Amino acid sequence: MTVEPRIRVLLAKPGLDGHDRGVKVVARALRDAGMEVIYTGLRQTPEMIAEAALQEDVDVVGLSILSGAHMALFPRIMEQLRQRGLDDVVVFAGGIIPDEDVPRLKELGIRHVYGPGTDTRDIVADIRRALGREGA
Amino acid sequence: MNAPELVAGVLAGDRRAMARAISTVENDRPAARELLAALYPHTGRAQVVGVTGAAGSGKSTLVNQLALELRRRGHTVGIVAVDPTSPFSGGAILGDRIRMRDLAGDPGIFIRSMATRGALGGLAAATADAVSILDAAGLDCILIETVGVGQDEVDVAREAHTTLVLQVPGLGDDVQALKAGILEIADVFVVNKADLDGASQLALQLQIMLDLNGPGADAGWRPPIVQTVATAGTGVPALADAIAAHWHYLHDSGRLQAQERAHAERLLTETLAREATARLLRAARDQGLWESLVAQVAAHEVDPYTAADRVMTALE
């Protein structure tokens, strides 16, 4: 018997940022949408995030950041993912990210950037679309 | 990666291949069978240690500390951590890594989170296969962390050589220690959160319970009771000693062969039941027998036993 694989998502909080209310709301929404969410907790380094993504064989990595360090940390995370051959993993980001930074982040390969007030249903729909799993 | 590449990668200890292989067995793709057939001859080397206990008893925190201690002793470590799947959405939150951040960055450790996906015994259906993959990849010790269990989820004891049962103070009186189920599967008892009131009473109750045990199949091993404070690492070296002592006991007493044989027989029985059922169902459908039998049982014209007999005789 072959079953349709569950969508696996790693949610991580890179850097020195102690606020995890938002990421927990997203984790819950993805769980309720039938996804398996691996939550790694606070203060993750780029290496820790990329290595967890590899070991957990996830389809998606979601980065939550409120500290303002995204332009320093996200390029390093993308580089660590690439070094491990995880180029096909869909990466999205959420938190407090100024609009002017968004084009540069998309150039880095970050698929979506979500700000405060995002409807979690949009995140679910974006993930399914990015994976070609609209029916999941 | 195709199956031969995955096999070669796993045997070489390539982490990407190990991760992909575990996904393959989880999703039950046709490749899983080929994969396991090739890997199985390379398994049977690692000591498999199950860690079970109630939700919030400190399993993940203890696994974190135990893995650090095993690394200090020169062993490589694989961890399979199971958390529950939602019965409503099919989704899951796998949070065991939160307590295992000390282990990040160590190439001698591989951690995989698994959702139960509807299995009820405290593990996922693919947990045993994931352990086989980590074993074939050459890891010395594999820790299986179950979901938070109640009294009756004892599957881990079938998959592990050594089962740790975590207990914490404050959850009930001494009658709890008399009950059947999870307390019977322990090879080592861990009284975690031993800095809380009631820890020494709990350890004493477990000792009294063990004193009442009659001579069982495993009369040569009395489960030790180790007190730990997992958040601080207190008692963890003593726990690692107890795990090593159990491993030596299994080897020296010949229990290991008996355990492996019982495990093999169970595996084969379960596999046969699953495969035979699938084959019978497929054939009954192909021969057009299935729909009419289902209808007859639904109409209470034929009972399920007779219907099952008809399937089997028709296909003999």
Helix-strand layout with pairing:
The complex is a heterodimer of chains A (136) and B (316).
Chain A: E1 8-12, H1 21-32, E2 36-39, H2 46-56, E3 60-65, H3 70-83, E4 90-95, H4 102-108, E5 110-114, H5 120-130
Parallel strand pairs in A: 1-2, 1-3, 3-4, 4-5
Chain B: H1 3-11, H2 15-27, H3 30-39, E1 47-53, H4 59-72, E2 77-83, E3 92-94, E4 109-115, H5 127-136, E5 141-145, H6 156-159, E6 162-167, E7 188-191, H7 199-212, E8 225-227, H8 236-253, H9 255-286, H10 289-298, H11 304-314
Helix pairs in contact in B: 1-2, 1-3, 2-3, 2-5, 4-8
Total helices of chain A: the number is: 5
Number of domains of chain A: 1
Largest interface, with counts of residues having CB < 8 Å to the other chain, equals:
A-B, 33 and 34 residues
SSE series of chain A: EHEHEHEHEH
Describe this structure in words.
Chain A has helices at residues 21-32, 46-56, 70-83, 102-108, 120-130, and strands at residues 8-12, 36-39, 60-65, 90-95, 110-114. Chain A is α/β, with parallel strands linked by helices. Chain A has one domain (8-128): Rossmann fold, CATH 3.40.50.280. The mean pLDDT of chain A is 92. Chain B is an alpha/beta fold. In chain B, 41% of the residues are buried. Chain B has three domains: 1-42, no CATH class; 43-253, P-loop containing nucleotide triphosphate hydrolases (Rossmann fold, 3-Layer(aba) Sandwich); 265-314, no CATH class. A seven-stranded parallel β-sheet of chain B has the order 4-2-5-1-6-7-8, sandwiched between helices. The interface between A and B is medium-sized, with 33 and 34 residues.
Looking at this protein, list some descriptive labels:
heterodimer, A: 136 residues, alpha/beta, Rossmann fold, 5-stranded parallel beta sheet, 5 helices, B: 316 residues, 3 domains, 7-stranded parallel beta sheet, 11 helices, globular
